[in-house]
Amino acid sequence: MKEQRLKNNSRQLYTVYPHMIHQLTVKKSHELVTARYSFNLMEMRLFTLIVSMIQDKDEDFKTYTIPIKNIIQTFGIKNKNIYAEINQLTTSMLKKIIIIPIQEEGKDKEIKTALVSSFKYEVDGRGVLEASFHPVLKPYLLQLKSKFLLYDLKNILKISS
User: Out of 17, 56, 140, 144, which residue is the most buried by the measure of CB atoms under 10 Å away?
Assistant: First the structure.
């Protein structure tokens, strides 16, 4: 798999392109898989696409960039108002809370957080979306060695509802 990396303002950026989609895998901890959250189809696809950009060796989250035209191609979107839809989609995702059940010191507890901490959206016509994960999700998405689900990104793209 060819990995696309760009340097921008001393932060590491990962960019995904349509030719990479069938090579990407999604890796989530068991806790994240069993967590409670409610996403519509587009929210789930976008979240999964961003998760697929995480590399096994990553020790920290990066800023993940996706050109909007690649989202259109990847998901087969034919909506002429896609830029407005992406703007609405990202706003909606930032409002969604996930509840992750955990065990600490023999007690059942819950973590409540947003799945994505921020989106940056270029509205000047270039149409690039940048996403960042909330740091509390590190143990559920980074450096996973056991108790995780691994699947090909292309499988989530087949889901139609």
Answer: 140
Residue 37 binned pLDDT confidence (cut-offs 50, 70, 90):
confident
Q: 33-52 burial by CB neighbour count: b if 16+ within 10 A, else e?
A: eebebebeebbebbbbbbbb
User: What residues does 28 pair with on adjacent strands?
Assistant: 149
Backbone angles phi, psi at 106, to 5 degrees: 75, 10
pLDDT in tens, 6-15: 334 334 445 5
Q: How far apart are CA 65 and CA 131, in angstroms?
A: 6
Q: How far apart are CA 16 and CA 5, in angstroms?
A: 9
> In sequence order, which residues have a C-beta less than 8 Å from that of residue 14 and are 6 or more positions away?
3, 4, 5, 53, 55, 62, 63, 64, 65
Tokens of 73: 């191609």
